Amino acid sequence: MRVGVDCFVSQDADDLSEAREADVPHFDPLQPFDQSNDEPGGNELGWETKFFEGIVRTSPNYVEALMNLSTLYTRQGDHEKGLAVDRRLVELRPDDPIVHYNLACSLSLVTELDGALAELEKAIERGYCDYAYMIEDADLENVRGDRRFFELMAKFHKTV
Prior knowledge:
Blueprint: H1 13-17, H2 46-58, H3 63-75, H4 79-92, H5 97-109, H6 113-125, H7 131-136, H8 141-144, H9 147-156
């Protein structure tokens, strides 16, 4: 499971001012909220994905929208798209432990274990310290099968 967007401070208003009204899905607060996906065979996350894709099209550096989009892609099983977004987030926030942790999760999901371990180490070096969560996180299941995962945990946290 990915670490959420709540950890971030709001994006600068400059990024948001560039958004064009026509590119943002219309929401009428007086109408019932339709959460259905209009694509045949789609899933319940489709409307959210379209919403955040629209935001990212107009504001490609809007970190919170990218974080949400990455999480949605991963929940939908589209790990390659989630990975691409996580790589972009690391470019935008190279010192942020959360984005490195999420990139490690994406790399683990696509079984790029060397990359996942390297990003996990970067996350820890930058301040990520929820070791109990790392041990349980389903997204890191593939990397936990590698002895280097526990060596990494022991290197930074002696009680693991």
